Amino acid sequence: MRVCLVDTALPDSVGSMRHYADMVERALLEREDIVVSRVCVADDVSQIPPILRTAKHHSQTVRHAKRLSRECDADLVHILDGSHGYLAKHFAKQAVVVTVHDMIPLLQSKKHFAVPRPNMISRLIVRQAATGLSHADHLIFCSESTRSDFHQHVGKSKASDSVVYPPLESCGRRIKNRDHAEQRICPAETPFIFHIGNNGFYKNRVGVLRVFAMLSDRFPHKLLMAGPEPTAELVLLAKQLGIDKQVQFVINPTNEEVFAYYSHAAAFIFPSIYEGFGWPPIEAMACGCPVICSDGGSLAEVVGDAAYVVPPKEEHLMADALATILSDDLKRQEFIDRGYRRAAEFTLERFADQLDNAYMEASRNRNGIAWRRASIAGNSSP
Questions:
Q1: Rounded CA gap, 6 and 163, in Å?
Q2: What is the pLDDT of residue 13?
Q3: What are the strands of the beta sheet with 160-163, ordered from one edge?
């Protein structure tokens, strides 16, 4: 089968969408019966005024997708980011699979969160993305939570669907190679609590500060917050809470640095309001770091019994859970052990098998028959 990955993350970008695209490509390259190509249909719009950026990005991705649909000789295209679901209708000759990571933009448009709605142009594009998913032959959801949100807020689709958790293959490789960075990045002086996330409202970085402030007088730990440059609101809140001397913002750390932080942190805190999947808690577990997280969106489903799980609004309960991890060595070790077992379930091999099943289902839906694999020694056809 010839598969074309339709990427909307720029080659030099960082973040979960780029990481997911890399994982899909790596998984498919392990398959002898799949020939994979990868095409980015996005352009750099960073120099365009913010008010025009969303519309420009939309028009450019549509233009590139139309050209790709004419030139592409693949049997199947996999659109890697469901927030670009409006691209699916442009691929009439191929079976189409789309990965839906979360429903945050649509839920925000519907006032599901206590934040302002996106502007009118953004809301229009969000609706186009959601309705455009109906043109896919198969939808991959990154969690049962996201699939449930889709069916509740978008409705039925002619596409079949499946839940395929992203893998942690890269996490394992980075753990093996982290030793050279550890002393440079994480000197064993002051113990610290770790968080990583962007400035999106759903990451609840203000909640991280408030929870930490409840414990700052009881424990000698610092708080390391990794991600983009903090907002002025975040810096001001740290001052108002009297913890600004204990908080260190780590701006855009490398992957090597992030995994060193996971490995040396006393605990990882992740009080997100909503996640479509949520890589960081599983990454922390794979590094032997105990996790305290919210139950926002998919998180309770993803971490299972391997983390303390607390509703995001219950900050006192989250502070209590964090205090338990920091003060009770037996409980801390229990969650470390659970975390290792849970993280070990997110393998690249499992991911590749489930992608393969999704592609077979999409081909069946488009063509009426499943794609028949070439006979390969040691890999029998279904």
A1: 19
A2: 81
A3: 35-40, 2-7, 76-79, 95-100, 138-141, 160-163
Q: Which residues pair with 293 in a beta bridge?
A: 270, 309
Residue that is written with structure tokens 């990427």 in the block: 7
Strand order in the sheet with 291-294: 247-251, 222-227, 192-196, 267-270, 291-294, 308-310
Q: What's 376's DSSP letter?
A: B
For residue 338, give both structure tokens: 């659970």
Query: Would you state the CATH architecture of domain 169-343?
Result: 3-Layer(aba) Sandwich (3.40)
Report the C-alpha dihedral over residues 267, 272, 274, 278, rounded to 10 degrees: -30
Which of the following CATH numbers is that of domain 2-167+347-367: 3.40.50.720, 3.40.50.2000, 3.90.180.10, 3.40.50.1980? 3.40.50.2000
The HSE-up count of residue 123 (CA atoms within 13 Å, CB side) is 10
Give the DSSP letter of residue 113: S
Domains 2-167+347-367 and 169-343 fall in the same CATH topology? yes
**Size (the chain), residues:** 382
**Residue 370: predicted pLDDT:** 54
Residue-wise pLDDT tens digits, 301-322: 999 999 999 999 999 999 999 9
Closest by alpha carbon to 225, among 212, 242, 215? 212
The residues spanned by each domain of the chain are 2-167+347-367, 169-343
Q: What angle do CA 313, 316, 321 make, to 5 degrees?
A: 105
Helix axis angle for 255-264 and 279-286, nearest 10°, is: 60
For every residue of 229-296, DSSP letters joined together read PPPHHHHHHHHHTT-TTTEEEEES--HHHHHHHHHH-SEEEE--S--SS-HHHHHHHHTT--EEEE-S
Please give the pLDDT value at position 69.
94
